[in-house]
Amino acid sequence: MLDWSNPLRALFEDSWNEEIQRFRSPYVFRGLEDARYELDTTLQRLGGNIAFLENNLIRNFKKYARKDAVEFDSIWNWITLAQHHGLPTRLLDWTYSPLVAMHFATASTEKMDVDGAIWMVNFYKAKLLLPETLREKLIEDGANVFTVDILTKALDLGRIDELDVRYASPFVIFLEPPSIDSRISNQYGLFSLMNVVRARMGDWLQQHGDIPGLFRKIDIPASLKWEIRDKLDQSNINERMLFPGLDGLCKWLGRHYSQRKGRDGSP
Fold this sequence. Notes:
Blueprint: H1 5-11, E1 16-17, E2 22-23, E3 27-32, H2 42-46, H3 50-64, H4 75-84, E4 92-95, H5 98-106, E5 116-122, H6 123-128, H7 132-140, E6 146-147, H8 148-154, H9 162-166, E7 172-176, H10 182-187, E8 189-194, H11 201-207, E9 215-220, H12 222-234, H13 239-242, H14 246-256
Parallel strand pairs: 6-7
Antiparallel strand pairs: 1-2, 3-5, 4-8, 5-9, 7-8
């Protein structure tokens, strides 16, 4: 019988780490409320000359934001802060938590009749596909993903578009942002970015589809969404916890008390 344990088992597959004898998944997760959605960035969804738009967006964000909004003046601090507050960027949101990804795949009551999906990407195998200089920097720091500090040392850029001309082939960087607020910590969040602003994550994954275990797409059938949603709420995986503050509280209450519609569209 198909129930919420089916996608849950799939999300936790391959989490056993033989070397340390612990369950430590090498995957990051991104939940989508509609399985048809692509892994496109908010910047790509703007359309037009996105390389030109990107520089204008970041320049103006830095101009109007408070100068002490970031710990130190690094393009990586500015772009992660901008993404966190909703500016269209080349970053994509991910989480280390399969349950948080499940939340985002089932958070919209308007999409309960549509199949959702959760993408899983192996960040360790993605690291092995980095240019040698960047890969060695991670090895030197004993890390599998970048922090702002490590990436600033490895790529001291004046402008984000320097990435596009510095490297010829597309690759993916996973970046843990500073804990700007409790939202990032509670969501166990991190970002991905590609060195080529127009490159699409989905295309990159398909190009490397011959690498076993690099990625998976787990379907969340519409028929399971309400079960998953209610059990996540009971497990305290909801807007109240993931978006601390009154806005998150109100989102949770509004969804929690919404009426489930019947197949004929009636309550």
